[in-house]
Amino acid sequence: MVTFLAGGTGTPKLLDGAAGVFDPAETTVVANTGDDVELGGHLVCPDVDTVLFAGGGVLDTDRWWGVADDTTATDDELHRLADAAGLESGPRYLPESAQTVGRDIARWRRFSGVAEFMEIGDRDRAVHITRTSLLDEGNSLTEVTRTLAAAFDLDVSLLPMSDDPVATLIHTDEGTMHFQEYWVHRRADPAVRDVEFRGADDAAITDEVADALAEPVVIGPSNPVTSIGPMLAIDGFADALADTPVVAVSPFVEDTVFSGPAADLMAGVGYEPSTAGVAEAYPFADAFVLDTDDGTDLDRPVVRTDTRIDGPEDAERVARAVAEGLAEVS
């Protein structure tokens, strides 16, 4: 048995070739939900859905977001209507009083669907409608995710990090905004001052996640702050990692990040944006997989390989390095 912690694109890219190393039937993926938003009344779970769509063979791997070859008729019409009515586009937060009413799972991240600021494809939207409807019928996010995973015929077990709301909010020099506004709408332009995982103090890991964390854990080359950070902020999560073998793949080559806003976010929360900073952020990690060009000297075992992942063959190579690291520390 092995458990992968997934967020953003790093771990999903690793999973793209992991089946050649780790038996999918013995693999659990715990996905970040701090990036989730309620958009036009529908709960969107980007990191859960990246794993869902990739495992179902429908992921748009050019963007690592949404369904491949999806249509956008509804999104297009939403923007046409807004333009015709003179309504402003961009993130439209619901009023503060509306952020904590309604379904609990969407607290602090509710946006109007007017001229939606995230492009949602039509098939993609069907998933969000089904998810939200099942939640409204009384199912937990874990139960709903299990149902969707079955619909997409996933080989691995997929779990959300919690059934409770945790919202990733970025404090910037231009104010506080949800991660999706910071990354999707603003393209990580505002300077980061801090990152808050609102709700984490009151959130709990589920029994299913607790069981998954009792197995050896792999942290792929995901963003340590906004992909893995929300999980670590939940009581008991980091403690569980300290009690099981953990191997982490650095998303950096020394101080150069492969992709995304990890460097700015790490600097914003006080970590050096580098492999050394990742090691500081992961004190529970027993070993690391680093790129062959990464000469960072760590105080824990290191396995080196080419860590760039541009396809399944690359992913399998990195997964084999992960397995080597787990064998050394298990």
From TrEMBL:
Its cofactor is Mg(2+). Pathway: Cofactor biosynthesis; coenzyme F420 biosynthesis. It catalyses: (2S)-lactyl-2-diphospho-5'-guanosine + 7,8-didemethyl-8-hydroxy-5-deazariboflavin = oxidized coenzyme F420-0 + GMP + H(+). Its EC number is 2.7.8.28. GO terms for molecular function: LPPG:FO 2-phospho-L-lactate transferase activity; magnesium ion binding. The keyword Transferase applies. It is an enzyme of class 2 (transferase). Pfam families: CofD. InterPro entries: CofD, CofD-like_dom_sf, FbiA/CofD. 7,8-didemethyl-8-hydroxy-5-deazariboflavin binds at residue 49. GO terms for biological process: F420-0 metabolic process. It comes from the Archaea. Keywords: Magnesium, Transferase. The keyword Calcium does not apply. Belongs to the CofD family. Catalyzes the transfer of the 2-phospholactate moiety from (2S)-lactyl-2-diphospho-5'-guanosine to 7,8-didemethyl-8-hydroxy-5-deazariboflavin (FO) with the formation of oxidized coenzyme F420-0 and GMP. PANTHER family: 2-PHOSPHO-L-LACTATE TRANSFERASE. HAMAP family: CofD (MF_01257). Homodimer. This is 2-phospho-L-lactate transferase. It comes from Haloferax marisrubri.
